[in-house]
Amino acid sequence: MLVYLRLLSESFRFAMNALRNNKLRTLLSLLGVTIGIFSIIAVLAAVDSLDRKITKDLSSLDKNTIYLMNRSFGPSEIPEWKREQFPNVKYDEYIYLKGAMTNTEQLGYQIFTNRESIKYESNTVTSVNIVPVSHEFIDIQGLEFDEGRFYTESEANSAAPVVVIGKEIAENLFGDFDPIGKKIRLYGQRFTVIGVLKKKGGGLSFGNNNDTSAFIPVNFVRELIGDNNKAVVNVIIFKPQVGVDMDAYKAEISQKLRSFRGLKAGEIDNFFINVFSGFTDLIDGIISKMNAVGWIISGFSLLVGGFGIANIMFVSVKERTNLIGIQKSLGAKNRFILFQFLFEAIILSVIGGIIGLFMVWIIAMILTKTLEFEFVLGMGNILLGTGLAAVIGLISGILPAVSASKLDPVEAIRTGM
């Protein structure tokens, strides 16, 4: 055991000497490994951070939540020209299904509409995500409040000019003043602020951040734009009871909406029943593809890095031929020489990997502070990067190490003189 520890120590010393004596050559040889490890770990860390953020932001939503609309979350076998003819779901369909559906915990109505500007006195916030929803939305999405409340059923049904705003909007419009009860201008009319949501920071809600969103009664927008406006997308949101058979539940929605719309047997559904779990599965698929692409691209850098390590090891064997001959003439066995060069190749490669990991860590800190997005370099990715660098060093160092171990001691000494 002590022999191998000494061997490892000597290999580390030889690797450091290679770095000191041939700085440019060694660094250029390690560049491929550094870039390869940097690329792979940067992609994996970014994807892991994004996945963690999405999971956290969507944790308040039940994966069984269903979105009934004229569009599909994922690919569809129905031709695009036919899908474009599908009608928007209507408010009266929401009312009908609310009374007709069984095994339903909550059922709400939402309109996906354009972004708008909100004003308060001389302050203006642009590109605000306007979310016109029925009063059930608070229970469906699990909104949390910093202060105030959500609008009631009577306020929602009467299209009362009340609004619930995200924390970032409140800070930009009112600063340190209490926003509750203040009047803001939206759609050319005055709305009373009745609630401010808790700040989540960089959250996702179908691509929108609740911190920069404003929630208003859906009936207000219906009165403003009508029920047949093609510029918006209407959605009926279902939150089934826990433990319900999802296939049977979707079949019930389909049967009742087909009956309400008067669709005949043989006619296809002119609507889509999107389960939220399908949306998360779609995100998981995209994340997996991003990981795969990152591995493929980074693999080329690692291949180049492997050739670089092999090159520097062959040069090292050439430079130390005389020393190898002396070691063997003094009784050093072939495996001792083999392990010496293998360890040196691994150490050099790991050094390149550590440089790559350090670069990822620096960029992660910069991005976290700049984007207010928690870019996490987990211990798993650190160990993966280090292990991958060691494997590259091992593979790259095999041939040079074998060639060194097979040198004839007499010929090695004579060649090195």
Automatic annotation (TrEMBL):
Residues 26-255 form the MacB-like periplasmic core domain. The chain crosses the membrane at residues 26-47, 293-315, 336-363, 375-399. Keywords: Cell membrane, Membrane, Transmembrane, Transmembrane helix. Its main location: membrane. One of its GO terms (molecular function) is transmembrane transporter activity. It is a multi-pass membrane protein. GO terms for cellular component: plasma membrane. It is found in: Cell membrane. Residues 295-409 form the ABC3 transporter permease C-terminal domain. It comes from the Bacteria. Pfam families: FtsX, MacB_PCD. Belongs to the ABC-4 integral membrane protein family. This is Putative ABC transport system permease protein. The lineage of its organism: Bacteria, Pseudomonadati, Bacteroidota, Flavobacteriia, Flavobacteriales.
